[in-house]
């Protein structure tokens, strides 16, 4: 849970405390659809452990393993749901992140015009 008085919404999703449909759930991460999609398929993969942003990651084996696992889960979901499509993956960095919980955006193009 994030600091302060209000719980982190992504921590709530990771602990299955919301009605969010999980596309993937394992010991390290969960994945679900972005509520404001920017592409044909737009999924978020988040760690179950609260990590505020990419800036909180360190150059250590555990963090490399986590990010690699997040990417593998995102690729697996997009390969399953949008085969033969162009994919994009990325993290936002502060101050551009909308939720202070590490999350990987997994997008299957085309982008959705705003």
Quick synopsis:
By secondary structure, the protein is an alpha+beta fold.
Please give a structural write-up.
By secondary structure, the protein is of the alpha+beta class. The protein has a single domain, classed as HIT family, subunit A, CATH 3.30.428.10. It is built from 2 helices and 5 strands. The chain has a 5-stranded antiparallel sheet with strand order 1-2-3-5-4. A hairpin with a 3-residue loop joins strand 1 and strand 2. The protein is globular.
Q: Number of helical segments?
A: 2
Q: Catalogue the unreliable spans.
A: none
The dominant shape is globular
CATH architecture descriptor text? 2-Layer Sandwich
CATH level-four homologous superfamily name = HIT-like
Taken as a percent bin, the fraction of beta residues is 15-25%
Helix content: 10-25%
Q: Class by helix and strand content? A: alpha+beta
**Measured distance between first and last alpha carbons:** 32 Å
Protein name: HIT domain-containing protein
GO molecular function: adenylylsulfatase activity; nucleotide binding
Keywords: Hydrolase, Nucleotide-binding
Pfam families: DcpS_C
